[in-house]
Amino acid sequence: MTSDAAEPTALTPGGINAVGRILGLLGDEWTLLIIQQALLGATRYGEFMERLPISNSVLTNRLRALTENGLLDRTVYRSRPVRAEYLITERGRALWPVLLSIWEWERRWVPEQADRLPGMRHTACDSDFAPTLSCQSCGEVVTEKEVTAQWGPSGSWPRSVPEAVTRRRSTGDTSRGQAGLFPETMSVFGNRWAAALLVCAFLGTSRFTDFQAQLGAPPSLLASRLQTFCANGVLCVSRQTGPARTCYQLTEKGRAFFPVIVTALQCGQRWFHAPEGPAVLITHICCGKPLLGLLTCDQCALPLTGDQVSVG
């Protein structure tokens, strides 16, 4: 492993910030699925191959990337022949709130996923549950309407857009079957501009010209992303009077993606540090304190931990 996974990665001054780094990591479905299986106990190459419809070349490349980014730790357990296992690190384990939020959003808001993704059970209260985003300071449930956000010292749109994301699956990658557990999440995270565009919408941007001015994205690409978000119901078009009559508004489905955004931002800023300081500062309006979101059980209101969640 190229870095100590227990310590945050120091980023280059003036370069891609924590937001860009975490969006780049989450922009590949195989990364999410490998981390998911690692959280469920997979450690060896053969176990990942058995559990995922993934080709050898794709798995090898992803395991290497996950090791280089400190999410997995490659440990040799046999020297002749060389055999290694991939143990999930503290940094990799910190992604579980993001995965849990994605799982719930896909299960709740993507019709074809209702039967494909089973429900979740909270073993602490022995109830089927849905995760709820709450403020750690005051304990209140948090929605996007109850927070304010502003750029921190390392924050700006150019620094928050990933340099690149891992190549998406090709037909050859899925020759052993379809993965696609998070198809609409990948419409958000699987494109280097899409996630930044959605964050922009959460911050109140609604007009095409404003999206373009803030993100600096090519107009044709921006139009394509907006069209995708409207097609999958994350955004809707509203007509208003004035010069810029077309506005793009978050739908209920789009607003429900808020826990995914918050948990991803928190994970990014915990594990990737720019020398200038944080990229984004989020305040919970109700208590006036910096938002530290945590997932709680909607049945018993207790904080969730990864080892208390069972699927099926």
Automatic annotation (TrEMBL):
SUPFAM superfamilies: Winged helix' DNA-binding domain. Residues 12-114, 179-276 form the HTH hxlR-type domain. It comes from Mycobacterium cookii. It holds the Pfam family HxlR. The keyword ATP-binding does not apply. Residues 150-177 are annotated as: Disordered. It comes from the Bacteria. Keywords: DNA-binding, Transcription, Transcription regulation. The keyword Transmembrane does not apply. InterPro entries: ArsR-like_HTH, HTH_HxlR, WH-like_DNA-bd_sf, WH_DNA-bd_sf. This is HxlR family transcriptional regulator. GO terms for molecular function: DNA binding.
